[in-house]
């Protein structure tokens, strides 16, 4: 059977797929989310939202709900386990939010359901065929195989993406040389020196040898910790094999001795330091986002955040195409903007791995690098990388410094009183902040979208401007500079 009429099929109901589906549904796009697993695993997996991701969620009115499910705020980030401070960046959220991936997924799915879109679980994508007008997606459920025809298909189906493989898109990179294990463990007796609350990246992880490492992060529940360990120079025969609880118990004993006793191991999984990125994020009517487009060692806590930001960038552009507000030229900017961001993350992760203290020389290099990080400019540069706050998109035409920059959401003065501009983005449209109605027509012509909110302000968020137009994802796309007085 070939069902017709769906605008977009999203393969995968992780944070990336759910955020993308939320953006599409918000714009009135008919979206179906197909998820292979019959139910959420409930596994904690990733643990953090970086500052830029918090800003993105705030633009959609989603941050409060995430904060309610978080268990801590972490006042810094890290680069190769060397802490970096986020407070040098102009943001309302100069911290990491501690929240398990499972809670992020649950919350986003609830908000998606409130919009009338539900995840189809137990639906495994098998293959697809695309032509110039549509994509036919074959998937399997308990009821048998079904074809679902859509205008677009987006693969958010993880590192082993069926969608990416079906596109035959190259996935170049490097094979992993080492491995890590992540486990959530409940202690009867907490190891000596372990943090009781996760407030900083200091002392949560450390090298244990030339290439080995370990770390403990408290997860909010009394006695519950994330235990991470591994070896950068050793790779198991099968990185996908299950890790036994006995292996984790032995690793805990090796790491902390009898100062710690464990009552429960809730889950454990292996990961490698492989790094790969899809050569293209779009082929015709099929696109990739999140881990389907890029994989890397989880250094700096960037993975989930990179995927959610992929979804935010893609969502409004794909919606504009589906609704007929924009064509392929806008949709093509998804790859043009996000592929370099993904490449930069893989690059900084490789640099972090390069600071592994393997030898006398590399230990000296790491010590010197730690000294450099205390310099404000170095700290700001590295913090901008891992937090996402340093992302700036290239624009064409005028070179005004505001263009391509993110909204920092500081209060603006209006006739009605102070205003947080993020509140204007909740419907997912463009936002014009302007001192005069004279700029309305020019801004609307640039946006090419009926989804435009205008707000008169005493002064825009950038100096020497009379108006700034922000895209739905909160980046400036057009400005009206203040005219230079005639002499």
UniProtKB/TrEMBL annotation:
Gene3D superfamilies: 3.30.70.2450, 3.40.30.120, FAD/NAD(P)-binding domain (3.50.50.60). GO terms for molecular function: FAD binding; oxidoreductase activity, acting on paired donors, with incorporation or reduction of molecular oxygen, NAD(P)H as one donor, and incorporation of one atom of oxygen. It comes from the Bacteria. Residues 6-348 form the FAD-binding domain. InterPro entries: FAD-bd, FAD/NAD-bd_sf, RIFMO-like. Keywords: FAD, Flavoprotein. Pfam families: FAD_binding_3, Rng_hyd_C. Its cofactor is FAD. This is FAD-dependent oxidoreductase. It comes from Amycolatopsis azurea DSM 43854.
């Amino acid at each position: 059977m070939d069902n017709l009429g769906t605008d977009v099929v999203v393969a995968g109901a992780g944070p990336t797929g759910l955020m993308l589906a939320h953006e599409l549904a918000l714009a009135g796009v008919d979206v179906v989310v197909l998820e292979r697993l019959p139910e959420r695993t409930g596994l904690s997996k990733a643990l953090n939202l970086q500052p830029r991701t918090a800003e993105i969620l705030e633009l959609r009115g989603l941050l409060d709900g995430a904060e309610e499910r978080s268990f801590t705020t972490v006042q810094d980030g890290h680069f190769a386990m060397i802490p970096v401070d986020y407070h040098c960046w102009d943001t309302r959220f100069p911290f990491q939010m501690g929240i398990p991936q499972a809670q992020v997924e649950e919350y986003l799915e609830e908000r998606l359901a409130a919009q009338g879109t539900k995840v189809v679980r137990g639906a495994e994508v098998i293959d697809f065929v695309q032509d110039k007008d549509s994509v036919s997606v074959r998937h399997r459920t308990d009821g048998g195989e079904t074809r679902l025809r859509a205008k677009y298909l987006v693969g958010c189906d993880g590192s082993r993406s069926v969608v990416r493989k079906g596109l035959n898109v190259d996935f170049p990179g490097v094979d992993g040389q080492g491995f890590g294990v992540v486990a959530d463990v409940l202690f009867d007796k907490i190891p000596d020196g372990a943090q009781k609350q996760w407030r900083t990246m200091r002392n949560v992880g450390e090298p244990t040898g030339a290439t080995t490492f370990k770390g403990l992060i408290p997860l909010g529940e009394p006695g519950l910790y994330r235990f991470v360990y591994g070896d950068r120079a050793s790779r198991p025969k099968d990185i996908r094999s299950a890790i036994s609880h006995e292996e984790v118990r032995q690793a805990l004993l090796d790491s902390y001795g009898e100062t710690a006793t464990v009552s429960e191991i809730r889950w454990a999984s292996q990961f490698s330091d492989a790094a790969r990125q899809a050569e293209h994020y779009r082929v015709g009517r099929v696109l990739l986002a999140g881990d389907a487009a890029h994989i890397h060692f989880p250094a700096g806590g960037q993975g989930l955040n990179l995927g959610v930001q992929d979804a935010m960038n893609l969502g409004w552009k794909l919606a504009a195409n589906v609704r007929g507000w924009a064509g392929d030229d806008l949709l093509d900017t998804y790859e043009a903007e996000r592929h370099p961001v993904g490449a930069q993350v893989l690059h900084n992760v490789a640099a972090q791995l390069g600071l592994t203290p393997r030898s006398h020389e590399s230990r000296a290099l790491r010590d010197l690098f730690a000294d450099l990080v205390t310099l404000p400019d170095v700290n700001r540069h590295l913090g901008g990388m891992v937090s996402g706050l340093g992302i700036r998109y290239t624009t064409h035409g005028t070179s005004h410094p505001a263009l391509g920059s993110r909204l920092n959401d500081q209060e603006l003065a209006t006739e009605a009183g102070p205003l947080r501009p993020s509140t204007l983005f909740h419907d997912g449209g463009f936002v014009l902040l302007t001192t005069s109605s004279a700029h309305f027509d020019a801004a609307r012509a640039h946006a090419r979208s009926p989804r435009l909110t205008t707000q008169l302000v005493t002064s825009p968020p950038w100096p020497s401007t009379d108006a700034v137009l922000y895209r739905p994802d909160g980046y400036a796309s057009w400005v009206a500079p203040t005219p230079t007085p005639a002499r």
